[in-house]
């Protein structure tokens, strides 16, 4: 009771009046608290169109879903997302949904990278001239023979 009096609240008032008194006294604090909580709240999912574009890339490159820096920039531009969001999406997607084949695990341990160092540039250029990404990411030992893989 002493606390109520100290706060300037009439202990004999009913609940509605108490609510009004509290709102008058603390509405500024509540508004600031609400704003702060909204800032800290985790943002919602990525936009549907952006997720679909990322999933399309994922499906085309499932064997080795590690986009190059140039591909990440292109994906960020085409989806309207920040590059950090692109990076986080791929990290989460690989962790949750990708299991590298045994062959790929051994290749990584041997220091093999499935695409030539300049493949990202080929891929970006290929998109501009209409070539398919599969032309640049298919490996000859996986059933598709393309000149890019032969020395």
Automatic annotation (TrEMBL):
Location, primary (coarse class): nucleus
Superkingdom per UniProt: Eukaryota
DNA-binding segment(s): 38-101
Occurrences of domain ELK (ranges): 17-37
One cellular component (GO) term of this entry: nucleus
GO molecular function, one term: DNA binding
Swiss-Prot/TrEMBL keywords: DNA-binding, Homeobox, Nucleus
PROSITE patterns (alphabetical): ELK, HOMEOBOX_1, HOMEOBOX_2
InterPro entries in alphabetical order: ELK_dom, HD, Homeobox_CS, Homeodomain-like_sf, KN_HD, TALE_homeobox
Subcellular compartments: Nucleus
Residue span, Homeobox domain: 37-100
Family affiliation: Belongs to the TALE/KNOX homeobox family.
Stated name of the protein: Homeobox protein knotted-1-like 7
